[in-house]
Design a protein that fits this description.
about 325 residues, eight-stranded mixed β-sheet, 12 strands, about 35% helix, binds adenosine-5'-diphosphate, binds magnesium ion
Length: about 325
């Protein structure tokens, strides 16, 4: 049974400029997250990644559709089950400074959930548990970090602390929302390694949200990738297969736009796919039909008219009317 399942989930917000209008931050999303897997969620800013993360962690509730935890609608969980879900599904936010109370020491902040949920008996036990955890993730000497306030730490250290906070309650899933985007480049890999290790050692599933394909591939090289565009999932597949042979023209364009300087990612043989327009429409002015059609070099009349459904293609899922045709006409590689 999947750990988390989104069933046709949409999240609409009121348009700030025009309150009578609704904005689809997430539209018709279906996704199952299995125990122990890593899924990378990629897409440009504003495509709904954070909204998706907040739905999975019940910070936002779906306007339409359902969220299931271990097969049960989250809205129908009893008090004990809901508590298990909230502890079991943790989120690491992008802005580590905003995520920590500036007036509390790290120990005060991190011991709170442990005590509240009776995962430890007293402050001493909380201290011991956090010392152990901090040592494990390289925040040493741990005593020093526990006594500090958030502003006394670097961005990279605060992200490690958020990871420690998420791990401290022994979750089965962690949603990490761009956890390294505000971290110094030199420290990114070590943070990604820590998450990969937590996945391996404890079997914790990860939803790794990013706009950066390089880190997505790094952490999820055996996992899956979900590609989002204007609130919709447009492609879902094993990450290796998807990067080798992207199906959706948008994903193809994303990959082929990665500079050659990133040899881990850029597939030298892949022809670049120039887009018709570099203006990213926003969800407030989403076009009719396929949301990608104004930028798509292959778009035909049907793309302007009908929104494509996500369907099976080459072992993955893709939302594109023309994918077979594009594949058939693609210049042979090699
Ligand atoms: N609380 C909110 N109120 C109104 N609009 C929102 C809210 N949260 C997100 N949005 C809008 O929903 C869209 C998707 O946002 P978000 O999920 O943050 O995207 P991403 O994380 O991919 O950058 C954006 O257009 C954003 O402006
Ligand atoms: Mg975001």
């Amino acid at each position: 049974m999947s750990l988390i399942k989104l069933e046709n989930v949409s999240v609409y917000f009121q348009n700030e400029k025009n309150p009578r209008e609704r904005v689809g931050a997430l539209v018709g999303m279906n996704l199952e997250i299995e125990p122990g897997e890593i899924i990378a969620v990629v897409g440009e800013s504003g495509c709904g990644k954070t909204t998706l993360g907040k739905v999975i962690t019940d910070i936002y509730q779906p306007t339409e559709g359902r969220l299931l935890y271990k097969g049960k609608d989250v809205r129908e969980l009893d008090k004990r089950e809901y508590r298990e879900y909230r502890l079991g599904v943790q989120m690491i936010h992008q802005d580590s400074y905003a995520a920590l109370n500036p007036n509390r020491t790290i120990f005060q902040s991190l011991s709170l959930p442990l005590l509240q949920h009776k995962m430890v008996k007293n402050r001493q036990q909380a201290w011991d548990r956090l010392v152990e955890l901090f040592t494990e993730i390289g925040l040493t000497p741990p005593e020093q970090f526990l006594e500090k306030y958030p502003h006394q730490l670097s961005g990279g250290q605060r992200q490690r602390i958020l990871l420690a906070r998420a791990l401290s309650v022994k979750p089965s899933l962690i949603v990490a929302d761009e956890p390294v985007s505000m971290v110094d480049v030199s420290l990114r890999i070590s943070l990604l390694d820590l998450m990969a290790r937590a996945n391996k050692k404890y079997g914790i599933s990860f939803v790794y949200i990013t706009h950066d394909l390089g880190t997505a591939r790094y952490i999820a090289h055996h996992g899956r990738i979900a590609v989002m565009y204007l609130g919709r999932m447009v492609e879902l597949n094993q990450i290796q297969a998807a990067l080798d042979r992207p199906a959706h023209p948008y994903f193809h364009a994303l990959i082929s736009a990665v500079p050659e300087a990133d040899p881990t990612l850029r597939n030298g043989r892949m022809a670049s796919l120039p887009l018709k327009s570099f203006d990213m429409p926003s969800v407030t002015n989403a076009p009719p039909g396929c949301k990608f059609h104004p930028r798509c070099p292959y778009a035909e009349a049907v793309c302007e008219r009908e929104e494509p459904r996500l369907r099976e293609f080459e072992g993955g899922l893709v939302a594109c009317h023309l994918v077979e045709k594009i594949r058939a006409n693609a210049p042979p590689r090699d």
